[in-house]
Amino acid sequence: MTIKNIVRLLLSVIITSQLVYAAETDYRMAYTNMDWWNKYQDEKLVGYIQDLVINNQDLKIASIRTKEAQEAVKIAVGNQLPYIGFDGTAQRTFHSSDNQYGAMLIPSYKQSQFIMPLTASYEIDIWGKNLNNKRAAKKSLEMVRENERATYISTISDFAADYFNLIKTKKLISNYEKVLDIQTEIAEMTETKYNWGLCGYPEVLTEKQAVSQLKNHLNNLKEFEDLLENQMIVILGSRTPSKIVVSGWEEVTTFEIPSELNGALIQYRPDYQKMQLNVEKKGFDVKSARANLLPTFTIFGSIGYNAYQTGKMFTPATFMSSAGISPNIDLFTGGAKMAIFRIHKLGLKEALQQYEKVVLTSMQEINDSLSSAKLMRDNYINGIEIFKNQKHKFELAAQKFDIGAMSRLEYLKHEKEMLEVEEEEISSKIDYVVSTINLYKAVGGIDYLSQPSDTVKEDV
Q: Residue 229: enclosing H or E segment and its boundaries?
């Protein structure tokens, strides 16, 4: 091989490896669907998702399983090809027994023997058994890829939901700290009223109890904040965890969801695709099991040398070759092969029922997610209106307080009421955003906002 040919070979290997890497990167980016996550207009979220795709262990495990399935396909392809092997022997007979062949006697002897044959065999795939096994292996590979896609959709969606819930929790903590400060001041002023004989002691106890309840609620929120951060660090797959930095609640953007979706969207769900592939795989399994009941025909042959002296190893006198065909059929297996065939047929029937169930379940989950998203949207719109009215009431109370027509105690209670109403708006906004993520997950990780209407087959 010349240097020029060696260089060409190396270049072809490098180019092939780069193409394989690019193909893997492309399908992973398709699974990630960054165009969808950019709709939330949050650079921090997008950055975390990019890190997650690189480091998350669940995604790496799913990718490894896909590669394992690819190797299984290669095994099935290999079973379709001829077998070629070398089965050599080098031996020395130090003392043989006398060998009698009728009237002819061969006395004891000493000799060496060198057998160097290349053997080959090929099962003629008349009934398509090996072909259907290969097709079944390819369907299994596609099913594993759908599992990988499902892992991407689920892992990234769960992280995004945790991200927005962390934003909500941090905002609620900030809000509750303000409410706690106000309630503490209200309790102190109420106790002062009691000391002046202007109220009963039960009123003081009520206000103090409210302070304790707010402290408990605030502690629960802080604990939930820690749990969310810990969970997100695990999903990010980093061994050197750092503080999770999120955007402010005010920076969270929302978008309008469609009032209706169509039944054709279920075709994008990984579980739907997987069940469809499973039905096809089971069909190939049945065909392969049926072919296994029929006779097989194997072509075999060998070519090589059989020498007794090393000096005459590669001579015409030591050359040998042979070829033949071997038909084979199992006449009696106790019904085992037929049982295997029936098992595969029942497996196909089961796969069809699983497919029908997945269709119904998929439509239900899309319906449920869409209904939940519309409810969260309406709650968010109502929450904005309620907070707007409550804020206006507080502004009126502030005007009365400024002109001395309202006590500070009453003013603080109005401010507390406004902050408590604001909690509903804080929660409803994030709940709506999370519901859009759940809907994205339910439709199979596609942009349901940009699906063309002419693909509609039936309303969900």
A: helix 201-236
Q: Which amino acid is at 165?
A: N
**Torsion 37-42-48-51 (CA) sign:** positive
Give the CA dihedral 53, 58, 60, 65, nearest 10 degrees. -140
- Maximum CA pair distance of the chain? 139
Q: How far are the Cα atoms of 282, 285, 289, 296, 337 from residue 292, in angstroms, in the given order?
A: 15, 10, 5, 8, 7
Q: What percent of the chain has pLDDT over 90?
A: 54
Write the CA distances from 413 to 111, 187, 207, 209, 244, integer angstroms. Answer: 112, 11, 11, 15, 35
183, 207 Cβ separation under 8 angstroms:
yes
CB within 8 Å of 102: residues ≥ 6 apart: none
Give 89-124+297-328's CATH code, choosing from 2.40.50.140, 1.20.120.80, 3.40.50.2020, 2.20.200.10: 2.20.200.10
Report which secondary-structure segment, H or E, holds 154: helix 129-195
Token readout for 235 is 């999903």
Check residue 128 and give left, alpha or beta (phi > 0: left; psi -120 to 50: alpha). left
**DSSP state, 85?**
E
Tally the residues of the chain: 460
Question: What b/e readout covers 78-97, taking b as 16+ CB neighbours within 10 angstroms?
Answer: ebeeeeeeeeeeeeeeeeee
Assigned token pair, 219: 């502690």
Domain limits of the chain? 25-80+127-294+335-455, 89-124+297-328
Which of 178, 154, 113 lies closest to 308 in space, CA to CA?
Answer: 113
CATH architecture under which domain 25-80+127-294+335-455 falls: Up-down Bundle (1.20)
Residues sharing a CB contact under 8 Å with residue 421, sequence separation 6 or more, in sequence order: 386, 387, 390
* Mean pLDDT value of segment 359-371: 93
C-alpha closest to that of 380 among 253, 204, 276: 253
Dihedral, CA atoms, 181, 187, 191, 197, nearest 10 degrees? 130
Encode pLDDT of 191-225 as tens digits. 888 788 888 888 889 888 989 999 999 999 999 99
The pLDDT value given to residue 5: 56
What's the DSSP call for residue 459?
A: B
Whose tokens are 């699983």? That residue is 354
Beta strands 296-307; 111-124: pairing state = antiparallel
Q: Which of 11-20, 80-89, 127-136 has the lowest mean pLDDT?
A: 11-20
- Tokens describing residue 445: 């990780």
